[in-house]
């Protein structure tokens, strides 16, 4: 991926979120730029995903328009799909899917950290604190999945594109695919289960 593609992602983010405000009443694009800034400067794919991570969820019609699909690399689109919440999806299922995708997981961790900054809200309400509690729980789960991934990264026995589903449980993490996250399998005995 090159700087031109990153700039195209920035333009889409600016245009798509131009009228949106965050909970503090600030332009929503500031949140996206802070999440981008949390990514390594030389990781253009993570930075691009950070800029558009809410695009398919928050911007009506953008997914169907195919605009991002025309210029983003396949692994960034897979990350965007993983980080996009589905209608009616519960939190456990959502965070299990995010944990499967290395790029999505890293961006979501930065997203949650930014959302947990209560200092940006002038007078946090009880609901703001409840939401922060849910974010903190999700952040802990994703950090655990990330740590588990890096500790077991070289423990490769076979390669798989998807985690297994057993009954109503998703096993997380099983395999990660990204240039930064070499695909690998984690032995069954070491996998974490998240109830769906």
Description:
There is one protein chain. The protein is mainly alpha-helical and 196 residues long. It has a single domain, classed as Hypothetical protein af1432, CATH 1.10.3210. The protein is 51% helix and 5% strand. It has a 3-stranded antiparallel sheet with strand order 1-2-3, covered by helices on one side. The termini are far apart. This is Guanosine polyphosphate pyrophosphohydrolase/synthetase. It comes from Hydrogenophaga intermedia. Keywords: Hydrolase. GO terms for molecular function: hydrolase activity.
CATH A-level architecture:
Orthogonal Bundle
CATH hierarchy, class = Mainly Alpha
- Give me the side-by-side strand order of the main sheet: 1-2-3
Low-confidence blocks of residues: 154-196
Quaternary: single chain
- List the domain count as a whole number: 1
Which geometry do the CA atoms define? globular
Structural class: mainly alpha
Spatial extent as radius of gyration? 17 Å
Q: Give the overall pLDDT as a whole number.
A: 79
How many DSSP E strands? 3
CATH superfamily: Hypothetical protein af1432
- How many helices in DSSP terms? 9
Question: Can you tell me the CATH topology?
Answer: Hypothetical protein af1432
Largest sheet: 3 strands, antiparallel
Helix percent reads: 40-55%
Order of helices and strands: HHHHHHHHHEEE
């Amino acid at each position: 991926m090159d700087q031109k593609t990153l700039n195209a992602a920035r333009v889409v983010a600016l245009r798509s979120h131009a009228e949106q405000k965050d909970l503090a009443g600030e332009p929503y694009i500031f949140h996206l730029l802070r999440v981008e800034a949390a990514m390594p400067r030389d990781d253009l794919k993570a930075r691009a995903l950070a800029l558009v991570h809410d695009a398919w969820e928050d911007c009506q019609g953008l997914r169907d328009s195919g605009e991002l699909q025309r210029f983003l690399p396949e692994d960034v689109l897979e990350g965007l799909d993983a980080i996009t919440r589905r209608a009616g999806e519960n939190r456990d299922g959502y965070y299990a899917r995010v944990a499967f995708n290395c790029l999505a997981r890293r961006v979501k961790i930065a997203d949650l950290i930014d959302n947990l900054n209560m200092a940006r809200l002038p007078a946090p309400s009880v609901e703001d604190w409840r939401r922060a509690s849910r974010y903190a729980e999700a952040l802990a789960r994703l950090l655990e999945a990330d740590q588990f991934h890096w500790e077991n990264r070289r423990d490769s026995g076979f390669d798989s594109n998807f985690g297994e589903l057993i009954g109503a449980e998703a096993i997380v993490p099983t395999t990660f695919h990204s240039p930064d996250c070499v695909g690998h399998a984690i032995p069954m005995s070491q996998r974490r289960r998240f109830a769906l």
